[in-house]
Structure formats: C-alpha cells, structure tokens
Amino acid sequence: MTTTVAAYAAPAAKAPLERTTIERRAVREHDVLIDIQFAGICHSDIHQVREGWGEAIFPMVPGHEIAGVVSEVGPGVTKFAVGDRVGVGCMVDSCRECDNCRAGLEQYCTGGNVMTYNGVGKDGEVTYGGYSQKVVVDEDFVVRIPDALALDVAAPLLCAGITTYSPLRHWNAGPGKKVAVLGMGGLGHMAVKLAHAMGAEVTVLSQSLRKKDDGLKLGADHYHATSDPKTFEDLRGTFDIILSTVSAPLDFDAYLSLLRTDGALVNVGAPEEPISLNVFSLFHGRYTLAGSGIGGIRETQEMLDFCAEHGLGAEIELIAASEINEAYERILASDVRYRFVIDVSTI
User: Fold this and answer.
1) Structure confidence at residue 247 as a pLDDT band (50, 70, 90)
2) Between the CA atoms of 265, 266, 270 and 275, what dihedral angle is there, to the nearest 10 degrees?
3) How do 31-40 and 143-144 pair as beta strands?
4) pLDDT digit string (tens) for 205-243?
5) Could you please report the per-residue DSSP string of 119-130?
6) Helix (H) or strand (E) holding 202
7) 235 torsion bin: left (phi>0), alpha (psi -120 to 50), beta (else)
8) Angle CA(83)–CA(165)–CA(300) in degrees, nearest 5?
9) What does the alpha-carbon distance between residue 94 and residue 111 come to, in Å, rounded to a whole number?
C-alpha cells in the first residue's frame, strides 16, 4: 500500500519550491522505509530545478543528502532493522550486473543508475528526493550512519562528503602529497577536512581571502586568493592534486600550471557551460585533467566510517522547509557556511 507524505517540490522549471504531497511506494521485499529527519541542500538541486544541466522531470522533489531512521523493512531485508540510523545519497538503484556495479562502482553503471530524484526507476516511476517526510529505498542503496555522527551534520556527507572523498582516495591523497582545494563552499569545505584527515598538506585556492580563517580552522595549511595573479606565479609546479569543487568556468590552462609533473586536476564541480582548454597545457608535465562522480555504496559507507573515526561532519546551517527558496538564493550568492540542511520535521 502506498503512503502519502508531505514534500517540497518545484512544480516547473525555475519555479519556486512549494509544499505538496507525493506518494511513496509500498515497501517491497528488499525495501527500507526511512523516516527522513534531515536533508542537505546541494548546488546540484539548484542546477536541476532550473534545468541548468538539461531537460528535467517536473514536479521535482530534490534532495540527495538524506539522513533518517528506519521505520519499516521488507521481509527479505537483512542489512537493516527498525530504528537504525541510515542515509541515502545520490542514487537508489543500478543495473547491478555490469562490470562497474560488480566492482562496487555503481556510480559508473554502464546500464545507467537510477538517481534519487529527477530519475525513473526500473518500475517506470519517477523518483522523488529527500525534501520529504519519508522515502522507500532498496536496502542495497542504503548506508548506515555511525552513532558518532549526528544526523544533521551527517546528511551532507551523502553527497558533499563522498563526492570529495572518492577522488581524494583514488588519487592517493595522504602523507607527502600536496593537495589544493579549489573553492571553499559545500564541497570544498569537506574536501579540506578530508584531505587534512588523510594526512595531506592542504592548500585552499579561493577567489578571495574572505574565508581564510575558516579554511585554516578546518584543516588547511595554506590559503591563497586566485584573484591575485601572483598566486599563479608563486604556486607554479606545486601540487600533486587539485580538486576543483566550483561550478563556474575556469581558466584550466592556468590551473594546470600549478601541478607537479604527473599531477592531476580533478573536477567534481560541474559548470553548466562547456570548458575551454589548450591541449598543449597538458603536455608540460604529463598532467591529467579528470572528473569524478560521487562514489559507490561500499565507498560511501567507508567514507562515513572514516568521518566518524576522525570526528568529521559538515559545517551546517539548519533551516526550516519554508526557507528553502531563500536558501537557494543565498547559495547562488555564496552566502552559506557551508551547507544548508533542512529540518524535515518542519515540512
């Protein structure tokens, strides 16, 4: 039997979000019903509500940073029980059969994974995200939130945390490595915390020095303003990894020059506009220009456990659901430190 729940949805592209109701499917054999307590607001939500990344499905209930408590399980569920503290990130299903899925890389499912919202499930139904009171998800796409992490600061880890953790692990951030984090926003502040906890020497590259005190407090060793041309002179050939978290077009030729030989510039921010690059910029030091998309379910659990071990949660501003539209505008104005999280009890 389906369940009617309250939610906040965008009725059309670029329209303000408004309170509404949606139907959640009946709990199937391997499903988990989650009472959502907190939902993070990701810049991706704004891109998709405003169709910045292409045509979308409306009405849209955004939200892929979901933290809550299990309230019901299907008869075949073995991983979770009622009362467990759990999370759901950016995807809720995949083909489960391709080489990537079998390797725990469901985010790169060649058959196409099912996104938590603005997607279509295998049953043909549109998916709705975390700006809602409840969600039903197959147990294989649910992760356990350790007791050491409060649910409100854990919610953003389900996107901002894993999106930065995965490339830092893949490109071997750690002792002896110099990591630059480009941008000090929702993703960037978690990248600083994670890279520092992994043992790397961390530098923040930001447009201005406005957030320098925050960056140093969160674990950065150095902080430089990219608006100062001298930054690109002084830091030439410095970094093993540059993790770009910004969603605006960059001068990639300039940033590649900051890499050491065999360094990598990895993008996790996704600008709406195409990028421009002089390919000769890659030749100067056998540089890699790469991208990275979230992380698999196994790696997401690894990330949560790592954060619990090191006492890492997101820096958040808790808001009521009635403030979502205002929060979107503030994000676009870079007026948040560093992640808005919705108190779902206010929906």
Assistant:
1) confident
2) 30
3) unpaired
4) 999 999 999 999 999 999 999 999 999 999 999 999 999
5) SB-TTSPBP--S
6) strand 201-206
7) alpha
8) 30
9) 7
